Structure formats: C-alpha cells, structure tokens
Amino acid sequence: MEENENIEKPAEGIESVNKPTTGTYDNMTPSGERKPKVEFIFNEPVEVSFADDFEKPVEFPSSQEKGTVYYLFNCMHKGEEKVFLTSAWSLLQGLRNVEPLAKKTILITKDMTKEGKQHYSVEEVEGKTEDEIPTEKPGEPKDSPEVPEEDK
Hints:
The chain is mainly beta. It has a domain at 39-130: CATH 2.40.50. The chain is built from two helices and six strands. The protein has helices at 24-27, 89-97; strands at residues 46-49, 58-61, 69-77, 80-86, 105-112, 118-124. It has a three-stranded antiparallel beta sheet. Strands 2-3-4 form a three-stranded antiparallel beta sheet, covered by helices on one side. Strand 2 (58-61) and strand 3 (69-77) form a beta hairpin. It starts with 23 loop residues before the first helix and ends in a 28-residue tail after the last strand. The relative contact order is 0.16.
C-alpha cells in the first residue's frame, strides 16, 4: 500500500482552488493581528477618522470573483483602531472625492437606492470631533436648550 494512496486527488483537468495566487504573501495579515471591522447599518451615519500618515487603502484580490479586488481601509472608530473593507463603487468614489484622507474625519452612510441597490454617501466632517457629531436623526426634534434660571 502506498503512503499517499488515501489522499484524494482532483479529477483530471480540475485545478485546486486552494492555491495562492501572485502577490498573496505580500497581502497576508499575520495571524492574531486582525482589527475589528466597522459595521455599516442602513441609514445610520458612521464616523471614521484617518491617521496623519494614512496614504491609501490596501488592495486585495477578491476570492469571490477572479480578476476583481476589494480595499481595506485602516481607521479610527469610536476611539478604537478598526478597518473597513469595500469593493462598492459608491463608497470608493465618495472616499476618492474627499482625498487626501490623512487627518480627516468623515461620515459614511449606507442607504438603498430606488432601484433597490446598496449605496454609500461620504461627507467630510470639518473641524468636528466625534463627540461633536449630532446624534439625533433627521426629523427628530432637538432637545430644547436649557433656559438659565435668571431668565425664567
């Protein structure tokens, strides 16, 4: 009995899908060093900030569709280092429109188009920290300002 007799071999003409492709090693993240992901929920603006030295996202080949890529962005979200991954055209274009991203804080909002397609809006937050972003949703009444005792 041969030593490798029990190992299943791919059928003739079928290529193994578990083989790395060109550049895989350069794009790998060491085990245990993954940062948590920023989650985008429909119609809820998400604020992220980019480091002073942020240059560009890391490009990865997609395992879903040959010849396509997705991008990994390192950022700060709610005081924690996080990442977000995307191949969505609207998000990539929105981010490109506010470049350079270094030292910037932006709001990303995920929504749905009338055609039922996912869409992202990106807007730069100028001169505001995360604590200064309004938390009320559009259409909700703002808290009434407190009136000093002497004016009552």
